[in-house]
Write a structure and sequence with these properties.
This protein folds into 3 domains: 193 residues, Heat Shock Protein 90, CATH 3.30.565; 123 residues, 2-Layer Sandwich (Ribosomal Protein S5, domain 2), CATH 3.30.230.10; 152 residues, MutL, C-terminal domain, regulatory subdomain (Ribosomal Protein S8, Chain: A, domain 1, 2-Layer Sandwich). A hairpin with a 2-residue loop joins strand 7 and strand 8. The chain contains 18 helices and 22 strands.
Length: 598
């Protein structure tokens, strides 16, 4: 009953641990190129990796014997003894990558060492060597991976959309590029260049990969201890986003995931960022290789530190210190080096006050029928007393019409508090309304009705507004352009910016909130994935209403405030948002009396 699996089947099972999607292939092969000492690495992708993944480097290359051996399972040049596992300073060491890739794709390797006259080419398919021979090729290695998962239709079928898969490729590519700012990286997709990263400083490399505005959002973090050295950059609290994507942790220049250390960072930001948002961070840990274990996960994305609890405290303290040092307010520079000398002014002399020339005989009332100043004053006060005597009868005249009618004056007094709440009076006391939640309820009912009728949400036009955005946000929005158009958004997308020319009715159109709106939409679309357009009307309307009610707390004018209150009370359920949060609260006269008489 028990049998040993054939090699080609066991390789497929093992490949599942290493090669989960096209991004996995890019990760493994680019890491190998870095370990080979390459100074230039070019990644070429077609059809988001389904058709072609090609990695060209100018590293050390391989001899024909090494090239053939490299495709065997557990063949590696990084370790020889068990003790070497505790001194790993390279990306790869398991020797599984090439064996796993060639079991699920057609792989061609062309490689040449500097001391060799000709290069060597070898081809594999389904873990079997197809051909080999000499070839003319530059120094280094050129891996060509075609038709990924061609022999496993089920796994190929479950790949995500092209935009999603390519977004994962860019993420893996960026993680490696950030750790090696001294290497020139290039990424091309379908004959178009996506990223060109020449050697640069770490901050410039982060800016080149995460967006041109990212460099402005970062502050430096640095601490050195006997346990670990921590360096890198963290984002300003006001630039925290709802969409993840710029949270990077590196241990000895190796990217890893750690909810534990991420918790330390979020704890340091407590009270500084809104709930549900994430700060950007690019944190580099440097420690003795013997004090961390990188051999606990096949894809090498998890790392175990020997002193993780101590490092947690150090990371938290370093982050708080950096946030404290950088108050994000303009600083006053008292450095006078190189400043011009300003001579002192002698103030020991008398400066007479200015003189005013006027005519003491001038009488401004001389043309008013010859009346004296005393007569004019007496007549003015007499008229004023007459008006005050008739004030009550004038105000009680119901047939009298006001001189003008200002529609912006509400029927009842409205008081706005901090741009977030509205307070108004009712018969039993006062009512307090949350502006954002009220807007969310109003938009939810409007969008629910519109979507149930099968028509797109009505758009409001505005002057086109261009907002810079990161690659993740741009790729998500681009992937869902048709869905956004149905929902009432008109957008155009280029490499690093999104231009918005129309919004659904009721959305705020302030420029300051547009980037937050786009982040909310990206989060909403990424959660829904391919099934976003098939969700129930209520779920879709609720998500759209929440995105539309986001933004900064801005005070409303009287007419806007009154309209908001009237529209809220016209809703079917004015008391709660779609998520069940309270929109308003009535404070009775008795409660007010109790508060004031405690």
């Amino acid at each position: 009953m028990i049998r040993v699996l054939p090699t080609h089947i066991s390789n497929l099972i093992a490949a599942g641990e290493v090669v989960q999607r096209p991004a996995s292939v890019v990760k493994e092969l680019v890491e190998n190129a870095v370990d080979a000492g390459a100074e230039n690495i070019h990644v070429i992708i077609r059809d988001s990796g389904r058709t072609l993944i090609q990695i060209i480097d100018d590293g050390c290359g391989m001899s024909p014997e090494d090239a053939k051996t490299a495709f065997l399972r557990h063949a590696t040049s990084k370790i020889e003894t068990a003790e070497d596992l505790s001194h790993i300073n390279t990306f790869g060491f398991r020797g599984e990558a090439l064996a796993s890739v060639c079991s699920v794709a057609e792989v061609t390797l062309r490689t040449k060492r500097a001391e060799d006259e000709t290069g060597f080419e070898i081809k594999f398919a389904e873990s079997k060597q197809v051909s080999q021979g000499e070839v003319s090729t530059p120094n280094g290695s050129n891996f060509i991976v075609r038709n990924l998962f061609y022999n496993i239709p089920a796994r190929r079928k479950f790949l995500k959309s092209d935009s999603t898969e390519f977004r994962q490729i860019v993420a893996e590519f960026s993680r490696i590029a950030i750790t090696r700012p001294n290497i020139h990286f290039r990424l091309s997709h379908n004959s178009g260049e996506i990223l060109n990263l020449p050697p640069a400083t770490l901050k410039k490399r982060i800016q080149d990969t995460a967006g041109k505005d990212m460099g402005k959002e970062l502050v430096e973090i640095s601490v050195k201890t006997s346990i670990v050295n921590i360096g890198g950059f963290i984002g300003k609290p006001e630039d925290a986003r709802k969409t993840p994507g710029y949270q990077y942790l590196f241990a000895n220049n190796r990217y890893f995931r750690s909810p534990y250390f991420q918790k330390a960072l979020l704890k340091a930001y407590e009270g500084l960022i809104p709930e549900g948002t994430l700060p950007s961070f690019f944190i580099f840990f440097e420690t003795d290789p013997q004090k961390l274990d990188v051999n606990i996960h096949p894809s090498k994305t998890e790392i175990k530190f020997e002193d993780d609890s101590a490092i947690f405290d150090i990371l938290y303290s370093a982050t708080r210190e950096s946030l404290g040092k950088n108050s994000f307010m303009p600083s006053i520079d008292f450095d006078t080096e190189g400043a011009p000398e300003i001579p002192k002014v002698n103030t020991n002399f008398y400066v007479p006050p200015p003189k005013i020339n006027y005519d003491p005989l001038f009488n401004p009332f001389k043309d008013l029928g010859g009346e004296s100043t005393e007569e004019i004053d007496r007549r003015f006060h007499s008229a004023d007393n007459t008006r005050s005597g008739h004030a009550s009868s004038y105000s009680s005249n119901e047939d009298s019409n006001p001189l003008f009618n200002d529609e912006a004056i509400p029927a009842k007094p409205l008081i706005q508090i901090a741009g977030r709440y509205i307070m108004t009076t009712i018969k039993s006391g006062v009512i307090l309304i949350d502006i954002k939640r009220a807007r969310e309820r109003i938009l939810y009912e409007k969008y629910t009705e519109t979507l149930r009728e099968g028509r797109g949400v009505i758009q409001q036009s505005l002057f086109p507004v261009s907002v810079s955005a990161g690659f993740n946000t741009i790729s998500i929005l681009k992937e869902n352009e048709s869905v956004l158009r149905y929902l009432g958004f008109e957008i155009s997308i280029n490499e690093d910016a999104v231009t918005v020319s129309a919004l659904p009715e009721g959305f705020p159109d302030e420029f300051e909130t547009m980037d937050e709106i786009l982040d909310n939409l990206a989060e909403m679309l990424s959660e829904g994935g391919d099934d976003f357009g098939k969700r129930s009307v209520e779920q879709l309307a609720a998500k759209l209403a929440k995105a539309g009610s986001s933004g900064k707390n801005e005070p409303l004018n009287n007419l806007e405030a009154q309209t908001l209150v009237d529209t809220l009370f016209a809703c079917r359920e004015p008391n709660y948002t779609p998520a069940g949060n309270t929109c308003l609260r009535v404070i009775s006269v008795d409660e007010i009396f109790t508060l004031l008489n405690r």
